[in-house]
Amino acid sequence: MTFKFFEELFEIPLRNGLTKPKRIRGEGYKMINMGELFKFPRIKNIPMDRVPLNAKEYANSLVEPGDLLFARQSLVVEGAGQCSIFIEDKEKVCFESHLIRCRLNKKIANPLFFYYYFSSRHGKQAISAIVEQGAGAAGVRGSDLAKVLVPDIDIEIQNEIANVLDQFDNKIEINRQANQTLEHIAQAIFKSWFVDFEPTMAKIAAQKEGQDPERAAMAAISGKSLDELDQLSQEQQVQLKTTAALFPDALVDSELGEVPEGWSEKALYETAEFVNGYAFKAKDFSSDRSGLPIVKIVELKNGLSEGTKFTIGEFREKYSIKNDDVLYSWSGSPKTSLEVFKWFGGDAWLNQHIFKLNFESEYQKYFTYYLLRHMKPTLIATAENKQTTGLGHITVADLKRLLVTYPDENVLAEFRYTVGPMYEKCSSLDIETRVLAELRDALLPNLLNGEIKIGKAL
After folding, report:
1. For residue 52, how many C-alpha atoms fall within 13 Å in the half-sphere facing its CB?
2. Which stretches make up the Type I restriction modification DNA specificity domain (predicted)?
């Protein structure tokens, strides 16, 4: 395979984005920030900050479909030079100063092909060679990026390879959307039951108006009107009636305000056992990727990779993780790192800065998982108040200080019965997506060197 300088494929020179301080953000044009680049490798119709643009900025700093965006700076070495591709948006979109825009000549270069190349092991190795480590951050220069050597491949072959890999990503996107829909439904149920107390509030309102409190709670739980309840099957009505009976019909005062009678207040720390990972050292790493992987925040976000460290060491059982464990990343950039995850990467060891959550019961697992998702804004705000150099963290002291309303065991069990199928379906979609991504990433080098022909890859 032959190579050429990346700049030989450019339609226009590389360009850095705009500096727009927070005080002027809120209105104007959508702007891609570092957060979007790291969260969305394929950027298409996603929420973004808005900024005003003058005429010169509008002329020079918009992105077009097919533009590649590279992270010019990152707090971690692995993030420097990370590549995303702008697919489309219904509005005009610009990009911020920590990003480099690359617009290729589409007559000789397929942007999607080069997005996949720079997302592959070979492309990341090429980028890592130009990464410079500075004080507290790593970065790449546009001038160095332009001189990176890339495969010199006929455009027709580029198109064929990009089409094969794009089919994987299209399926992954379908899974992601389905997963997101299910998560939103489950989260809405959590909020209705445990934040807004809608079944209990419906009972109280019905009692005041001389109506049937149980039917009012049934309507609140199902999202149906009272008239629509009669259109449900007998089995559905019986199930709703059983669920409604579990909710109290009165509120009582507590430290958190009024809560359903019989429910309690607990520290967030008491809703699970939070076990911090192990502080692995360089001497623990194996030189040949033998043993089990060490899971850091980057593995939670992106799965295992060439940069993942392995160890053959033996450590306390509490630091081991397996499929379907629930983990919470408690340190890092608050808006991008503080998150609850399900792990599906197989047996591994857990690094520090991540909590493994152990539960007294299966019921508690579902409650705490969706509780952490619901409390994400509160946890982010808590960490931001303590952040230094862009980093923040959630401590055990924070978990002990933050109080939550905790239902009785019967309601917990019913919540598990209601959202469990959604949780499990999301898990199966996560697993399928992980497998698809691994197959996609394994295909590219084999397609490049001709070991797999296009027809056989389809």
Report:
1. 5
2. 5-184, 260-408
Q: Which residue stretches of 129-257 are H helix?
A: 142-146, 155-194, 198-208, 213-222, 226-229, 234-245
Largest Cα–Cα separation, the chain: 82
Number of other CB atoms surrounding residue 244 within 10 Å: 24
- The whole domain housing 211 covers 154-262+408-458
Q: What is the pLDDT of residues 29-62, one digit of tens each?
A: 999 998 899 888 999 999 999 999 999 999 999 9
What single-letter DSSP state applies at residue 317? G
Q: Are residues 207 and 138 part of one domain?
A: no
C-alpha distances in Å from residue 440, one per residue of 1, 23, 411, 434: 21, 41, 43, 10
Q: Rounded to an integer, what distance in angstroms lies between the CA atom of residue 364 and that of residue 341?
A: 16
Average pLDDT over residues 417-437: 94
Helices 155-194 and 409-448 pack at an angle, to 10 degrees, of 170
Single pTM value for the model: 0.81
Say which DSSP state 351 is in.
B
Cβ 83 vs Cβ 118: under 8 Å: yes
147 shares a domain with 9: yes
- Looking at residue 118, its pLDDT comes to 93
- Per the CB < 8 A criterion, the answer to whether 325 and 410 are in contact is no
